Amino acid sequence: MEFQKEPKRDKSKNLVTTFPVPFISEIISKNINISTDINFPMSEEEIIKKAIQFHLKGDIHNAFKLYEYYIRNDFENPIVFSNYSKILKEKGKINEAEKFLRKAIKLKPDFPDAYYNLGNTLKEQGKLKEAEIYFKKAIQIKPDLAEAYSNLGLIYEDLNKIKEAAILFEKSIEINPDLAEAYSNLGSINHELNDLDRAEKLFKRAIKLKPDFAEAYFNLGYINLLKGDYKTGLELFEFRNKIKNEFLFHANPKIERINDINLQEIKKLLVVSEQGLGDTIQYMRYLPYLKSKGIKVSFCAQKKLHSLIKASGINSDPITSKEANLVSEGRWIPLLSLPKCLHITPRNPIINSRYIYSTNELVMKWKNILANEKRPIIGINWQGNKNIEKGRHHGRSIPLEAFSFLFEKNDISILSLQKGFGSEQLKNCSFKNKFIACQNEIDNTWDFLENAAIIENCDLIITSDTSIAHLAGGMGKNVWLLLKDIPFWTWGLEGESTFWYPTMRLFRQKEKHNWKEVFKRVSVVLNNEIENNFRD
Known about the structure:
By secondary structure, the chain is α/β, with parallel strands linked by helices. The protein has 23 helices and nine strands. The strands form two sheets. Strands 6-5-7-8-9 form a five-stranded parallel β-sheet, with helices on both faces. A four-stranded parallel β-sheet has the order 1-4-2-3. Helix 22 links the parallel strand 7 and strand 8. The protein starts with 23 loop residues before the first helix and ends with a helix. The relative contact order is 0.06.
């Protein structure tokens, strides 16, 4: 029987419920006893009620089906639109979700949950300024909407308004002392402010309130690793895989995934890369070790690294994501889970000698090209992917102009290893005359294998925390890594050396954002190096 539409009503009155979808998890935990049978035909009110009942029970499939049925029959209800948009967002249909939220707001301009959901949707699209407006509107309508304060705080954190973000997280907790997300968010702010002890307490509080809170576990693990507790930190680091849309593997194999390695039992193992190029370069060192234990290892890695992987003897036949998804034998593991499985600690690095090589032909090619340079050649790199330069990663890159301090006491030539992001700074660089003659040719060289050959012919590499640091470190080159005040966990909190790369020297910020002081120190040390160790 076809559904019979009822006459439309005033869209802003007599709504079935004011149930705010963002807080479904809280309601589900109350274990409401409701009927979820579908019997057509139903009135408009019955469809809405039944759809929300499914939503409350976590039956997204049937809730979505009823929302769609409702919308197809030209009914209009702001709560349905808001609820429906949340499911669309979870399905990755961001633009459609935004469209229905705007419809909900048009129907009911004083609907705080729609403003809140639209703020979340816009934030996910990177539209931070517009998201800020809608979170503020939600708060204006409903001043006790704790979640809106917390998510507005995340916007401010992304915009590097750290103090403003902290105030909003505190306000969120004041309104709702049981909101786990607010404690975790405030913990991240304290991490950035270098109050690691308080950050740790806040993450633990978030976990107590929400025992399955993957992000809080991960953040707690991050602090453990930063402090040097690798055993606990690497265990908690595994929660990264449960954080939606944050840490994605480069393949989704059909074979069984393992979480630990018994080297005596495993015969075939597929290792799948994840995250950025630097991560792959850092952790691929363990593949030859696995092979030496009699394991047949396949390696799924970014295509642009394949030539480097083969030349270095890491793996003779690296595969693509598509090929990894077709593997039908053995088991698989994410690349960044290897340190946990191999029980890596600063005292047990397993592999910390050189493991990356270019080819003799490419090394000789660039040796001949650079032979006419009379001054020491310093390879530099200053910026990573700007899309992740936020939160705890904000401030890791260096303005190119800061490298000008190196020339105050030192007669050197600069070789830019920067590719893509940050290269635009070369246009207005005040020390263009200090770059080597063949810089244009190097700028057009994007192959990692060839870049490794270029690095091989430098006297020193000075870089921010990017893939170049791992590439040069893995090659055993003399590399100086310049770190922000609270660096990525790999580098720890103190010391000038790292067990990851014995030939690397760490220069740490003593004051947040103060690169000038760092370069003053680097310049003095460089002067000594030139006098004592570099070529004539």
